[in-house]
Amino acid sequence: MRRTFKAFPALALIALAIPASASAQATRTWVSGVGDDANPCSRTAPCKTFAGAISKTANGGEINCLDPGGFGGVTIGKSLTIKCHYTEGGVLVAGTNAIVVNATATDKVTLKGLDINGTGVGAPISLVGLKVLSAKHVSIIDSEIYQFKAGVDVAPTSASTTVSVLNSHIHNNDIGVITAPGNNTISFVSTVLRWNEIEDNTCGVTVSAFGTNGSTPTTTDCGAGTSLSGINKPATTNAYHNGIYLNGTGLFSRGANATLEIGWNEITNNLTSAMRRVDTGHIRTVTNTNVVSGNSASDGTDLSVALSKRQARKLARR
Questions:
Q1: 227 contacts 156 by C-beta, under 8 angstroms
Q2: Segments making up each domain of the chain, as ranges
Q3: How many C-beta neighbours within 10 Å does residue 214 have?
Q4: Rounded to an integer, what distance in angstroms lies between the CA atom of residue 76 and that of residue 167?
Q5: Using an 8 Å Cβ cutoff, are 169 and 137 in contact?
Q6: Which CATH fold would you assign to the domain 149-316?
Q7: Residue 90: beta bridge partners?
Q8: pTM of the model
Q9: Percentage of the chain surpassing pLDDT 70?
Q10: Taking burial as the number of CB atoms within 10 A of a residue's CB, which of 103, 174, 218, 266 is the most buried?
Q11: For the sheet containing 161-166, what is the strand order?
Q12: Which stretches of 16-96 are assigned E, i.e. beta strand?
């Protein structure tokens, strides 16, 4: 009995240690412009940066912005949500990537309400606003991405990936959005663009079956690799209800396995070309739904898909 009683203090200490370890990661954490990464990232003791908060956030958890601030770049390696749509969620970087998603093939990531600024100055100019290397699905919503070599770069290397970009402003980049396989180990890559303003980029939207190239994009290559890359996998972008305007080249598709489908977009006043198709790349239109005007030139589309009866009735009522 005495031995048992003597063991009680040690057992109590172990019992106390277990919940402390289990609670090291919270399902919801907080960042603040006046926070500190030494904090536990709770509502009353928030962290300072996304990078500081992510290690304290459980897989499938969420990081929220408590008040306005610049929360720095971050690499995301698990299922995670970052939401700052009620306040300023700033990510300001220089000479590097802002947000990199390098998660597993089953992870889903959501980013909402972020102001992602690459500054556009210095040497080198910031690389990518949102770089997707691996995930099952990534969503970016209600955000602004500007002053990068690429605003959104979807080039997965270890998992076939889908990405959606919704209701965002992507401007003043070399490339607004580029979708391309990162290598031949993946099966496909796909991006959906809805209700975005894509303007004042050297190239607005690029899809390439041959991957990306390492040079500064021009209006004639739009960051797309060539067949010499050794990469050739299906890559698709579906762009609906976007404004794609005042870019150099608006839309660019390269390679027979690349398809850019467009519907209900305003593709206007692009300075070099509205649409370019290189190496038998495809641009497929949803019949009679796009406004294409005021552009210097255009290759046009090579494929089309008919409106459904429901879509046709809805369009006729406008």
A1: no
A2: 149-316
A3: 6
A4: 22
A5: no
A6: Pectate Lyase C-like (2.160.20)
A7: 70, 115
A8: 0.90
A9: 88
A10: 103
A11: 26-31, 57-65, 80-83, 108-112, 137-141, 161-166, 189-194, 235-240, 258-263, 282-286, 303-305
A12: 26-31, 57-65, 69-70, 74-76, 80-83, 89-92
